TrEMBL record:
<comment type="similarity">
    <text>Belongs to the ferroportin (FP) (TC 2.A.100) family. SLC40A subfamily.</text>
</comment>
<feature type="transmembrane region" description="Helical">
    <location>
        <begin position="165"/>
        <end position="187"/>
    </location>
</feature>
<feature type="transmembrane region" description="Helical">
    <location>
        <begin position="403"/>
        <end position="420"/>
    </location>
</feature>
<feature type="transmembrane region" description="Helical">
    <location>
        <begin position="486"/>
        <end position="505"/>
    </location>
</feature>
<dbReference type="GO" id="GO:0016020">
    <property type="term" value="C:membrane"/>
</dbReference>
<feature type="transmembrane region" description="Helical">
    <location>
        <begin position="6"/>
        <end position="26"/>
    </location>
</feature>
<comment type="function">
    <text>May be involved in iron transport and iron homeostasis.</text>
</comment>
<keyword id="KW-0406">Ion transport</keyword>
<feature type="transmembrane region" description="Helical">
    <location>
        <begin position="136"/>
        <end position="153"/>
    </location>
</feature>
<dbReference type="Pfam" id="PF06963">
    <property type="entry name" value="FPN1"/>
</dbReference>
<keyword id="KW-0813">Transport</keyword>
<keyword id="KW-0472">Membrane</keyword>
<feature type="transmembrane region" description="Helical">
    <location>
        <begin position="460"/>
        <end position="480"/>
    </location>
</feature>
<feature type="transmembrane region" description="Helical">
    <location>
        <begin position="47"/>
        <end position="67"/>
    </location>
</feature>
<keyword id="KW-1133">Transmembrane helix</keyword>
<feature type="transmembrane region" description="Helical">
    <location>
        <begin position="199"/>
        <end position="217"/>
    </location>
</feature>
<feature type="transmembrane region" description="Helical">
    <location>
        <begin position="426"/>
        <end position="448"/>
    </location>
</feature>
């Protein structure tokens, strides 16, 4: 079997990772006094070990997939006399079934992990640089830029070659993030009262918001366009792809803060440790970027249907086109389902995290490493296929999840107005149920958007849907204040959830 691009990338990235890990273990910890060890500053050894051996995880996943496909190529994979036949994907006589799936998951993990690391790193960098800004300023900037540009950018999913789009977004995202980091460093090196500090912060926030749009465009193209074609090619159900991709997102959301916490816990001989933290991020990103590019390239090569795309539309950046995209979305059958899911963004959970005003009332804290959110999200992904087998089609499961979410939110409203001693614990339990229902509702909507939207409009319709969700999130973000009563905000969340359930019911 000829080596694919990912195999070469695994060899290169794996060698560099092992080299960094060995350097950190042997030289950084001074296990050996060999003269071949370069001088390593105290604290850098554990960091090199963490980055080196940690980056081997996606490499090992790709290597296992390659070995498994190679072993399948040497034996019969289809039982000719059996009624239960195993469908195997071939390309020019070469078995690629395992690699086709694993490469998608690895590429998505690298993208999600780098994004989560950056989101966790920015507040810490601002604190180290002495930049005092509102904690809602970054999400406000991100949401505002997304509302303005995401619908227009999403056109390129329909008007551009699939490989060209993902290749571009793969390299543009780290480039823009690097420019944002440089702007943050410029703000940190300026005096607090100097105009250059405010200008640098403004540029850094805007660049970070643009990078968020690019990363959203990348995820949209992969999850809601490529995955549909790959599911048709491999004859596997869409829910199996969506569930694993959601689990990959949850794993990245758990591992990224954990890595940042481990990095910060290492004592460093440096007056400005934020430089080393930033360096670790860029080294890790530079090591995993070739692997991400290689996996996407091989996926495109393994699936000929991805290249057989007829471009029926052209991308146009104008206010008239912006209005036209929204008009097309409102006339689409998935509009009410999208509105219902967008309304859930105005409730007590924001992408699996309790709102800051709710988290202050939880005991113990839900965000202790985000273990609670990830655990209940994982349970939701495990329940979704079973629930879909019991409540099908997926539209009915989405409807049931909406009412399940509302029913789980009612105890939160009752508990929030109480003053009993164990209120925090009961809030924690009800939010766990909310998280499970929210994951099922999100997975149902993703599959509905995959099945109901034509291949020539996947980018435009899904882009407007994500923008609608951002608008709904912006509404509650503007209402979040320390002095706002908890019962009032929970009441608004219950009202939004009720409207979401009614809108979804009307859609059915």
């Amino acid at each position: 079997m000829p080596l694919d691009t990912t195999a070469v990338a695994c060899a290169v990235v794996g060698t560099v990772s092992l080299g960094l890990g060995t350097l950190g273990t042997m030289c950084g910890s001074h296990v050996t006094d060999t003269p071949y060890c370069p001088p390593v500053r105290r604290g850098l050894g554990p960091l090199l070990t963490l980055v080196g051996y940690g980056s081997l995880l996606p490499v090992l996943a790709c290597v296992v997939a390659i070995i498994r496909d190679t072993s399948k190529a040497k034996q019969e994979t289809i039982a000719l006399l059996s009624s239960k036949r195993q469908y195997t994907v071939y390309r020019q006589g070469e078995v690629v079934a395992t690699r086709l799936c694993v490469y998608v998951y690895v590429a998505h993990f690298v993208s999600s992990f780098n994004n989560c690391v950056w989101e966790a790193l920015v507040p810490m960098l601002l604190a180290q640089l002495g930049v005092n800004s509102s904690p809602t300023l970054i999400p406000l900037t991100t949401v505002s830029v997304s509302i303005l540009f995401l619908p227009l950018l999403s056109q390129f999913v329909d008007a551009t070659d699939r490989w060209q789009l993902l290749r571009t977004t793969t390299f543009v995202w780290p480039l823009i993030m690097s420019l944002s980091a440089v702007s943050l460093l410029g703000a940190g090196s300026s005096r607090a009262d100097h105009p250059m500090r405010s200008a640098s912060l403004f540029v850094a926030y805007v660049l970070a918001a643009i990078a968020h749009c690019v990363r959203t465009l990348h995820a949209l193209a992969l999850q809601r366009d490529w995955v549909v074609e790959l599911a048709l090619l491999s004859q596997t159900p869409l829910e199996s792809w969506n569930v694993v991709l959601k689990q990959v997102d949850l794993a990245a959301r758990l591992l990224a803060p954990l890595m940042i916490a481990m990095t910060m816990s290492i004592p460093l001989d440096d007056a400005a440790p934020w430089r080393i933290w930033l360096g670790v991020f860029f080294v890790l990103q530079s090591m995993l970027l070739p692997l991400q590019w290689a996996t996407l390239r091989d996926i495109y090569r393994f699936a000929p249907s991805l290249g057989h795309k007829t471009l029926h539309t052209t991308a146009e950046v104008s206010s008239a086109r912006y209005i036209s995209l929204w008009r097309s979305y409102t006339q689409h059958p998935v509009c009410l389902a999208g509105v219902a899911t967008g309304l859930l963004a105005t409730t007590v959970l924001r992408d699996g995290h309790p709102r800051p005003w709710l988290n202050r009332h939880l005991s113990p804290s839900w965000d202790a490493g985000d273990v609670g959110g990830v655990a209940m999200g994982m349970i939701g992904t495990l329940l979704f296929p079973w629930l879909l087998a019991c409540v099908h089609p997926v539209e009915k499961l989405g409807l049931a999840s909406m009412w399940w979410y509302l029913a789980s939110l009612l105890p939160v409203g009752l508990i929030s107005v109480g003053t009993f001693q164990t209120r925090g614990v009961w809030l924690l339990l009800t939010i766990a149920l909310l998280q499970t229902a929210r994951v099922c509702a999100d997975l149902a909507l993703v599959q509905i958007m995959q099945e109901w939207v034509a291949s020539t409009r996947r980018g435009a319709i899904n882009g407007v849907q994500l923008t609608l969700k951002a608008i709904c999130g912006l509404i509650l973000l503007l209402l979040e204040r320390d002095e706002v009563d908890l019962g009032l905000l929970v009441g608004c969340s219950m009202g939004a959830s009720a409207l979401a359930a009614i809108a979804y019911t009307r859609c059915e």
